[in-house]
User: Fold this.
Amino acid sequence: METNPATGTGSLLINLKCPACGAEYDAAQTNTFCIEDGCNTTLFAQYDLGQPLDKAILKDRPASMWRYRELLPIIGEENIVTMGEGFTPIIPVKNLTEDTTGNQVFWKNEAGNPTGSFKARGIGMAVSKAKELGITTIATPTAGNAGGALAAYAARGGIKAVVYMPKLTPKVFKDECRLYGADLVEVDGNIADCGKLVAEGAAKYGWFQISTLKEPYRLEGKKAMGFEIAEQFNWELPDVIFYPTGGGTGLIGIWKAFDELEQLGWIGSKRPRMVAVQSESCDGIVTAFNGGKNAAEYVDGGFTIANGLRVPKSFADKIILKVLRDSQGTALSISDSEMNDALKEIARKEGMLIAPEGAALWQAYKKLKASGWIKSGETVVLVNTGSGYKYLENIEI
Assistant:
């Protein structure tokens, strides 16, 4: 696909590649995941990182994820569907010093994104690429935030959105989908049940599915968090990054971003230890990691106040586990009562009403610090994935 210099983004996109078997796919075509011999692996966008590219290009660019446009997959600038997502703030933990003594601890706070969560990144990227590829209807299963983001970005991009959501999801998530004009289907089940129905509908009606990590581009939007963390820490990465892990797109994306930045020469070989935090309700990654396994089992213990963590089995479980081990990281699960307590503690002491998924990270951090896994002098980043305002009916005040 040729780029028109007048409207081009300067993207260095080459193709799509399977990280498991190495199969390559044409990025100018519509793709889902690797289908070679039943590989069923998320495809990674590949870029020409041998090109000389200086960090100085970022000077004076807008403070959004699109400031890194050469390392993102949209070719034509006219196809970018954006509402200013990305370049969210790094906020130091200020008042809970009894828990942070000896460490610098920061929130990467995604709550200010359009539609109130980090889903704006991945969905914004997926909708932009769908527009570029001529796709007219997009469907997704969701635990909440992804559905609202898809509804909003599809509305802005002139694309039809179909959203399947569990009935137990808080009403605000359903309302925003309907307000943005999406077709919303409530399902008596979990996100995996929704995913099966989306697949059936896609086969019948020709919708394009953007289920988590079953298409290549949501990953590229989430990846920008890694670029931002590197830039916001002056290209010296923190020692530990905590990430709430349902589907795990952001964890994988952040790790991919660091690899690309090193290839460009913008950072060195140092990597943070990655920590996957799950709900006790759906802790397949934690169980697999602790058991030394390379794949996770299907686990669903039912409702959790952290809707985004009710993912019984990530499509990319093998990649998540590899990132944790390659980074010398770890995984742990947190109960709903612990999340609720942490959410209130952070609200009352730090003035931040964060999502339960983010609150789970605070409890995980305290546990790993108490155990000595987090060492004195280390810098820690906790990725709060969304706003707590959307979860108020789940929270005990």
Q: What stands out?
A: The chain has a mean pLDDT of 96. Residues 13-79 form one domain. Residues 150 and 162 are 9 Å apart (CA to CA).
